[in-house]
TrEMBL record:
Protein name, as recorded: Uncharacterized protein
Localization per record: Cytoplasm; Nucleus
The organism of origin for this protein: Wickerhamomyces anomalus (strain ATCC 58044 / CBS 1984 / NCYC 433 / NRRL Y-366-8)
GO biological process, one term: ribosomal large subunit export from nucleus
Predominant localisation class: cytoplasm
Amino acid sequence: MAKKVSKHSRAARRNEIDEPEAKSLASLPRAEKTDLTSAIIRATTKKNEDLLNNKMLKKDVKSGQVQKKNVAKSNLESNLNKIRMERAIMQSDILQDKILKSKQRSKQVQLTRKQNWDAINQAANEVIRSRSGTPADNGETPEQDEQPAEDAMEEEDKFYSDDEEESTSEYKPQRNAFDLLNDEVEA
């Protein structure tokens, strides 16, 4: 017996095989009423409308329960939103505090650096005064910007002329200006 040819074979894909089913269906007469689509569409739309009406009626009957759940759910959401807003405000307050503290730290660092430079400048001025022969202020703050510019120029000339005279004399080692700095200063 010969093996039956499969419908998925190469010959079947090329339509080389005559199928008896296709021939028998081709010889049958067509049905008279073939326009069934409009009837099917009308039936499905009617069914969908009925289902929707039933669903709406059930929702109206259970509306009290559903509303309570919705109210509780909306209250929960509003409470969560309030909590989130409070957390956000607290977080922003923390951030503002950090920024404020950072600015205060930077001002403090600048102030200590300025004070240290003031101490160094004061020590340098004392050295200059001791070389030029003027008496020290004994801790009093020097008056600034009261001398005219010409007097300042004369003092500088005297300072440089004194340096030239001292360079010929015996050299005295200067003390380190950074020794005046406090040990607590951050760099």
